[in-house]
Structures are given as C-alpha cells and as structure tokens.
Amino acid sequence: MLCHKLHQGAGRGPGPSMSCLCHPMSIAKHRVSIRHALPRAWALTALTCVATPWVHAQSPAQNPATADLQACLKLTEDKERLACYDRQATKDTIMALPASPVAAQAETPQPGQPAQTVTAPPGGTPATGDTPPDEGFLSRFWELSPADKRGTFNYTAYRPNFFLPIRGLRKLNNEPSSPTRGKATNLPQYQHFETKLQLSLRTKVLEDFLLPNADLWVAYTQQSIWQTWNHEESSPFRNTDYQPEVLYVVPMPMGLQNLPFDWKWRLTSFGLVHQSNGQSDELSRSWNRAYVSFGVERGGINANLRVEAPLAKSNDKYDDNPDIEHYLGHVQAQLNWSPGRSIASLLWRPSLSGRGSVELNWSYPVNAERPDGLRWYVQAFHGYGDTLLDYNFKQSTLGAGLTIFKF
C-alpha cells in the first residue's frame, strides 16, 4: 500500500519516478536488509518525495545538488542508496557552514548593536596602501591639516609654561629708565637671586577662516619676576609683563612647501601683539607690534623667522619707550630641535645697532619613561630685553626649574 501511494505521489509531480524504490524483486531479494534500513529509507524517501517537486518548481534549471540526488535514486541496492544519501547530506551540511566563524560573527550584528559600516579614511579618500608623509610638529601644533583640526575654543599651550625657583642675575638694574619716563628711584634693594614664572595659553576662535585650513587664534603670555628669596624686602615682584596677541595662521599649499636641503615651508602667520608691564610713571613700559612670521621644518627640527614692525603712538609723550627697537631689533629667529628625550630651543633677536639678545632653553623629562610628563627646565639669557622694564639694560641670567603645565 505504501509503495502504491509513493508511486502515485511521485508520478504527479515533475520529479523523477519513484517506482524503483518499491520494486517487488528488490524487496524479495533484500528482505533482511530492508527490515533494518526501512525506517531510515522511509524518512529519506518521504523527504525526497516532498522536496523534489518544490525544488523543480522553484528553479527550472537543475543544480548540482539535485543531480546528485537523482543519482542516488537510481541505485537499486539499499546499502549503496543509503550510503549515497549520507554522502549527499554531509556535503550539503558542509556547504551551508560559514567560511569563518569570525567572519560570520562580524557579518551578523549582536542584539542591540547597530550594524557596522565601512567608511573612507578622513578626507573621503579611500585607502590605497600609500600613507601620506608625516607633516611634522608644526602641523600638529598649529592644526594645519584637516586631520589635525581640533575645533575652536580649546585652550592649549603657546609658549613654554615653566617655574624657575632659582634664577641668578649677573647685574642688577637699580635705576631703570627710558627717554620719555626718566629714571626710576627709591626702588627696593633687589637681590641677585630670584624666581621666574611664565604662563602662556592660546585658543582658536575661527577655523577655516578666509583661506582653506587657515585659522584665527588669540593668545596670552604672562611673565613674572619674583624676588622670592628677598625676605628683607618682603619678597616683592620685581616686574610682570602682560602680552595679549591675535594671530592668523595660514598653512602653505603643497606646491610652495619644498625648499632647498629638504626643508619644508609649513606656514605663514600674521599677528598683532601688545606688551606692557602694567606700571605707571617712571616704571611704565609698553609697545605694540605687527608681525609676519614663517615656519619651516626638516625632520625633528623646526624654525621660525619673524619680522616685526613697531606701531608708533600718536604722540611721543604717550610712548613709554620710543627707542625700544634699537635694543630689540625688528627680527626674531627661533630654532627648535629634539635631541633624544631632550627638547632645546635657541631664540635670537639681532639688532642693527649691535645690541639684541640670545636665549637658550632646554628641558628633559623627570621620568625618562614619560617624556610628556613633568620636565626639568633650564634657561640662559644674554643681552637686552630680559624683561620689558629692562629693555635697554644688558643682562645675563641662568635659571633652573620645572615645566608646570602640559596642554
């Protein structure tokens, strides 16, 4: 009865005939084999009778799996036919497995997690295996490229921030003077050892302003000279200079960056700076300057050349120090380099009058394994303009201490 129904069910569909499964001679010849294999054969035969018409209905073209199944159906020996089914079932299971468990996990997002998307690198340029060259310290410091941009109103360091508790002076300026303010008298009895403190911050106020990747910055630097060890005079502050500044930083186009000897011209900046000591009468000192500066670098060395133009006041009686450029000049050149874990800089202010100044700064990490942490700091100065009050007084100093902030 079962053979008759299977034969009729197979004959209705588009699949192959199932009469071979119920041939009387086959059953008589292999009665014992069928007794043991009959449950498994019935299940596989029923599955084949149901699956074969559906496969043919879904795809008129015969696929390799269907061809293998038909080959199994043509076998008259029960053991061979069952072994054929086993091989086919095992092959289908292997083909259904993912190529890699890791790949399958990546393709299927976990519950509650969004599907991952592949995005282009910053700037919208697909990765090709060629990485752009490192644009160096100046690009990171001034955020010259789109990849270095950090937005506006993020405070960061401008000039070095340091505290020098011990600073020795070669000479003392006991009578500071200027052509318009005269000579100061009745000053405290200053000592040759004092403390120097410098704080310097900057922030970007406009990004991509006027020119591509050009930014507008504001900065503030304060330098204080403190007679810390002069207890007889109640440890007074000898001088404090206040210097607000606004500067417009323009990165140079790639076509203009290449200079001789592998130097790179990274930026040009334009600035306005005011500097004063906040004093009155004979101790008052102040001046305003406009400048243009050029930043270049090569490997771990960078340099800055700045040309200044003092902004004259409308009346000499309002000018605290009309001859200041004769001592400090109109040019400032700075060279910075990093020998090992050290950081060094040399600042030179030449003057056509033969005056000017030179300043050397050097720092080294307190913990050599953490170069971005606290650092020892040494500063040596010789020439004119150690402070604004001493702009026309030749001085030599040497101080040692620590950096105090890292932005």
CATH topology of the largest domain: Outer membrane phospholipase (ompla), Chain C
**CATH architecture designation of the largest domain:** Beta Barrel
How many E-type strands?
A: 15
Distance between the ends: 90 Å
What is the total number of structural domains?
2
Q: How does the overall form come out from the CA principal axes?
A: elongated
Query: Which consecutive residue ranges, at least 5 long each, have pLDDT under 50?
Result: 1-62, 93-133
Helix and strand pattern: HHHHHHHEEEEEEEHEEEHEEEEE
> Tally the helices: what do you get?
9
Class from secondary-structure proportions: alpha+beta
Major sheet attributes:
12 strands, antiparallel, barrel
Question: Quaternary status of these chains?
Answer: single chain
Average pLDDT confidence is 78
Catalytic activity: a 1,2-diacyl-sn-glycero-3-phosphocholine + H2O = a 1-acyl-sn-glycero-3-phosphocholine + a fatty acid + H(+); a 1,2-diacyl-sn-glycero-3-phosphocholine + H2O = a 2-acyl-sn-glycero-3-phosphocholine + a fatty acid + H(+)
Family: Belongs to the phospholipase A1 family.
Organism: Aquabacterium soli
Cofactor: Ca(2+)
Characterise this structure.
The chain has 407 residues and is of the alpha+beta class. The chain contains nine helices and 15 strands. The chain has two domains: 2-92, no CATH class; 138-403, Phospholipase A1 (Outer membrane phospholipase (ompla), Chain C). α3 crosses α5 (78-96). The longest helix has 28 residues, at 31-58.
